Amino acid sequence: QSDAMSVKKVQKSFVAQIPVPSRGLTKAERTRVEILEAAVEFLWTNRFRDLTIAKLMSGTSAGRSAFYQYFDDLYGLAEALLRGLEADIFDVAAFWLEGDGDPVPLLKQTLAGLIDITYERGPILKAVSDASRSDQRLEQEWNRFLGQFDDAVAARIKEHQSLGLIEAFDA
Questions:
Q1: CB half-sphere exposure, 29, CA atoms < 13 A
Q2: Is the pLDDT of residue 167 over 60?
Q3: Which residues contact 14 (CB under 8 A, 6 or more apart)?
Q4: What percent of the chain has pLDDT over 70?
């Protein structure tokens, strides 16, 4: 897959999170999406610590001041990227976390989806992981996301064990 293809897939996930009036996206909604897209594009080839608002906004049709209409700072932007990533991960994981039937095929389907997402959203994962070390708010959100995913997986394993679908094991 090309980087451009991956950016397009990421764009779809963010568009899905924005309320869409029947007439389509408003100019403000399009600007927010454009900023998120520019961030992902930058992060494909650069580190989060190298991102500046000036560099980010140079990749959009909006001016620098437009950034502050949507985000308090670059860490707020990283939080928005994390929320999009989180939604995508839980959507893909739902096959196994919520599915009925033989857990093995459901898990295989989920793992394949998670592999795709981690490739497609790799720059977001790296950026949020790196940036969370220097911003307490982002660190809390990152840890909340990781904990929520761990808790969901642990609950599903326990459920499958109680149903006799998988054998108990020491974790």
A1: 13
A2: yes
A3: 33, 36, 37, 84
A4: 86
Measured distance CA(43)–CA(51) in Å, rounded: 8
- Closest by CA to 134, choosing from 71, 52, 78, is 78
Would you give the DSSP letter of residue 141?
Answer: H
* DSSP result, 96-113: HHH--S-HHHHHHHHHHH
C-alpha 16/C-alpha 135 separation (Å) is: 27
Please give the Cα distance from 127 to 22 (Å, whole number). 34
pLDDT at res. 13:
52
Q: Are 142 and 132 in contact, with CB atoms under 8 Å apart? A: yes
Grouping H, G, I as helix, E, B as strand and the rest as coil, residue 86 is helix
The residue among 130, 17, 35, 43 whose CA lies nearest residue 73 is: 35
